[in-house]
């Protein structure tokens, strides 16, 4: 009878220890799991940009700039890889934060800008992620068990256009200086970009960007209220002015 009681006590003790181990594992995040990608924010041609990857099962990692065994960006168009450990001679990643459900990148470092190590609109970027508490990825471009992939197309950078006129109001026939400022989260669009200045549907003239600013002086504004709009044409790396960009329109009064 005593032997049976001791055995039952031992079994119960082992069960309690096992349950406690499972609880601790759950609190600490448990074993590495296969990640899943829910969404990837747009990727543009800029070197320094914010790229957000959301999902589950990423594990956790400290911020770093360089390569690791847990994430890579493979440019399927130009055939280079960024961020994966064996590729120390190419492009690295800037990792701002890495939680189990979101990875935030600040763009690219390393050999960015040399040879073909840049992004272009239309490039296909194959993103691979392994759980940071797992074994990491294999050498090469395959994706073994425990890895998730998602392919994203590089797009042009979003821009915003703001217009101002001076003096406003003006008198009939008085020269009015129109100024457009084009900005982007991915940097200033290149010099020489064309900006049209319009009064409703009439083209007043154009100006070229310099440091993100284009200007035009005109005496063609009509008596009363004029709806002046600045339209940046855009280029292969930067979007043009959107139709719904309200800051690109100003009401100018001629007395």
What key attributes describe this structure?
41% strand; Immunoglobulin-like; four-stranded antiparallel β-sheet; 2 domains; 10% helix; disordered N terminus; mainly beta; 255 residues; 1 helix
Descriptive notes:
- The chain is mainly beta and 255 residues long.
- It folds into two domains: 36-153, Immunoglobulin-like; 159-254, Sandwich (Immunoglobulin-like), CATH 2.60.40.1930.
- Helix content is 10%, strand content 41%.
- It is built from one helix and 16 strands.
- It has a five-stranded antiparallel sheet with strand order 1-2-7-6-3, with no helix packed on it. The chain has a four-stranded antiparallel sheet with strand order 5-4-8-9, with no helix packed on it. Strands 13-12-15-16 form a four-stranded antiparallel sheet, with no helix packed on it.
- It starts with a helix and ends with a strand.
- Residues 1-30 have low confidence and may be disordered.
Topology of helices and strands:
Layout: H1 2-27, E1 36-40, E2 51-56, E3 64-66, E4 71-75, E5 80-82, E6 91-98, E7 102-110, E8 124-130, E9 147-153, E10 159-166, E11 176-184, E12 194-199, E13 202-208, E14 213-218, E15 224-232, E16 249-254
Antiparallel strand pairs: 1-2, 2-7, 3-6, 4-5, 4-8, 6-7, 8-9, 10-11, 11-14, 12-13, 12-15, 15-16
């Amino acid at each position: 009878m005593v032997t049976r009681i001791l055995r039952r006590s031992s079994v119960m003790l082992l069960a309690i220890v096992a349950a406690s181990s499972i609880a601790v594992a759950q609190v600490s995040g448990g074993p590495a799991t296969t990640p899943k990608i829910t969404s990837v924010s747009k990727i543009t041609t800029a070197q320094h940009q914010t790229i957000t990857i959301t999902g589950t099962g990423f594990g956790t990692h400290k911020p770093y700039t360089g390569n690791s065994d847990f994430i890579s960006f493979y440019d399927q168009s130009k055939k280079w890889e960024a961020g994966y450990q064996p590729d120390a001679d190419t492009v690295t990643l800037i990792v701002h934060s890495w939680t189990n459900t979101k990875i935030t990148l600040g763009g690219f470092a390393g050999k960015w800008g040399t040879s073909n190590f840049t992004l272009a609109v239309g490039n296909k970027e194959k993103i691979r992620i392994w759980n940071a508490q797992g074994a990491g990825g294999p050498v090469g471009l395959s994706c073994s068990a425990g890895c998730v992939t998602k392919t994203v197309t590089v797009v042009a950078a979003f821009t915003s256009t703001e217009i101002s006129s001076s003096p406003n109001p003006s008198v009939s026939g008085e020269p009015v200086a129109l100024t457009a400022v084009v900005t982007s989260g991915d940097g200033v669009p290149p010099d020489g970009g064309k900006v049209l200045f319009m009064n409703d549907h009439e083209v007043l003239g154009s100006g070229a960007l310099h440091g993100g600013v284009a200007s035009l002086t005109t005496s063609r504004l009509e008596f009363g209220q004029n709806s002046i709009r600045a339209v940046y044409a855009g280029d292969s790396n930067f979007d043009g002015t959107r139709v719904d960009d309200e800051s690109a329109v100003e009401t100018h009064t001629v007395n």
